[in-house]
Structures are given as C-alpha cells and as structure tokens.
Amino acid sequence: MPTFLNGLPVHVLIVHATVVAVPLAALVAVIVALVPRLRRRYGWAAVAVAAVATVLVPMTTSAGEGLESRMDHSAAIERHAELADAMIWLVLPLLVALAALVALDTYRLRNARAEGPGTMTAERRVVGAPAWTRFVSLALIVVTVGFAVASTVQIVRVGDAGSRAAWGDEQYTAPHGGE
Fold first, then answer.
1. Tens of pLDDT along 21-74?
2. Keywords, A to Z (predicted)?
C-alpha cells in the first residue's frame, strides 16, 4: 500500500471511507438480522456492504502503518495503531456471521413450503426446514448483532484515538461575530 498519493497521506484519504463503511455495515447487518423479510430481500446487499468495510479496514491500517513509520513515536499514535489493528477481528467475524445467516436463510427458504391463505403475496413462514436451522439462525442473529455493536464501538474508539493523535489537546471553537 503506498503511503502517499500526490503528496497526500493515503491513510487520511481512505480513513473517511472506512469510518463510514464500518458503521453502515453494522447498521444494515442489524436490520437484516432482526427483520427476516428484509433479510430475504436485501441480505446479500448487506453482505456486500460488510465485505467492502472488511476490505477497507486492512487497507486503512496498512496505509496508517506506512504513515506511522515516517512519524515521531508517540503514545497517542501507538494507542491509535493498537486499536486499529484490532478492528479487523471485529469486522471480519461480522461479515462471516452475516453471510452465514443470509446463506442459511436462503437454504431454509429453499427447503420450506408456504403455508396459509394468500401464500403467494403474504410473508412466507418457514415450515418444513430442518429443525437445526432455527437454532443456528438464532445463534447467527445474536453473533451478527454482537459483532455489529462491537465494530461500531471500536471504530469510534479508533477514530477518537486517531484524532487525538493527530490534533492532540488542541481545542477549536466556532468563530465569533459571523466570521
């Protein structure tokens, strides 16, 4: 991963995409995990968003390591780097759990039969799928939501540590008098 692009640090350029992609992936993962109707319709799109976030995390940390090697050592930068290195171990399991949940849901629907009046237009109940799939589905929902929450908390911690490393204790206030 290059450290600079046209004189600008690559880390600074892609970190913004990561800061948006990780919480977005977490949000859509929670939504499709908790709402089966939306999971069936948008599950694979949510997996794609989580995959993008997962790819961005190591790109961002790699670019950050290149930048870190060119800077003076500080405890703030070290803390930011340590928190960032842990990020992949939250986003990757989120992606895996979400993909497994959506795949299992697809499998359950293929092995199910519709039941009740108006089954062509009504929400399909999953009847006839193997019994183990319900338990595994519930476990995957819990794991997905857990890693979504953990990923969101961690990206906030990483971003806070990064801004403190970059800006230190500098305090900014809004300009006075309409400036």
1. 999 999 999 999 999 999 999 999 999 999 999 999 999 999 888 888 888 888
2. Membrane, Transmembrane, Transmembrane helix
Question: Is residue 86 in a domain?
Answer: yes
Closest to 99 in 3D by CA, of 157, 40, 48: 48
Query: How many alpha carbons fall within 13 Å on the CB side of residue 27?
Result: 6
Global pTM reads 0.83
Q: How many domains does the chain have?
A: 1
Closest CA to 124 of 7, 15, 41: 41
Query: Closest Cα to residue 63, out of 11, 5, 14?
Result: 11
CATH number of the domain at 60, please: 1.20.120
Q: Which of 83, 91, 27 has its CA nearest to residue 57?
A: 91
Q: Is 123 inside a domain boundary?
A: no
